[in-house]
Amino acid sequence: MRPARLRRPLAALFAAAAAGLALLALRPGPPPSVRVLAAARDL
């Protein structure tokens, strides 16, 4: 009877892990950017 007692917590754990991984997979990537050089003081 021990596996039957752990079934619900394991299902909840796997559901939470699946939701977390889905959020990571669906998040948007970083926006495109361009590196710009600037002088620290007047040249």
Count the strands?
A: 0
Low-confidence stretches: none
Give the CA-based shape: rod-shaped
Q: Beta-strand percentage?
A: under 5%
Give Rg in angstroms: 24 Å
The H-and-E topology, N to C, reads as H
Number of helices: 1
Structural class per helix/strand content?
Answer: mainly alpha
Major sheet details: none
Residues in helix, %: 55-70%
Mean pLDDT: 91
Tell me the distance between the termini: 79 Å
| Overall number of structural domains | 1
Protein name: Flp pilus assembly protein CpaB
Jot down its keywords.
mainly alpha, 0% strand
Helices, strands, pairings?
Elements (H helix, E strand, L loop, with lengths): L1 H25 L17
Task: Give an account of the 3D structure.
This protein has 43 residues and is mainly α. It has one domain (3-42). Helices cover 58% and strands 0% of the residues. It has one helix and no strands. The chain has one helix at 2-26. The protein is rod-shaped. This is Flp pilus assembly protein CpaB.
Short summary:
The protein has one helix at residues 2-26.
